[in-house]
Amino acid sequence: MGHGHGHGSASGQHVGRLWAALGLGAGFLTIETAIGITTGSLALISDAAHMLTDVVGIGLALAAVILAARKNQKQERTFGMYRAEVLAALANAVLLFAVAGYVLYEAIERFAAPPAVPGLPVTITAVIGIAINATAFMLLKDGAKESLNLRGAYLEVLSDLIGSMGVLISGLITLTTGWRYADPVIAVAIGLFVLPRTWGLAKKALRILFQHAPERVDVKQLCVDLTALDGVTEAHDVHVWTLTSGMEVASAHLAVAPGAEPADVLVRAQKLLAEDYRLEHATVQVEPRDATSKCRDLTW
Question: Where does the Cation efflux protein cytoplasmic domain lie (predicted)?
Answer without folding.
Answer: 215-288
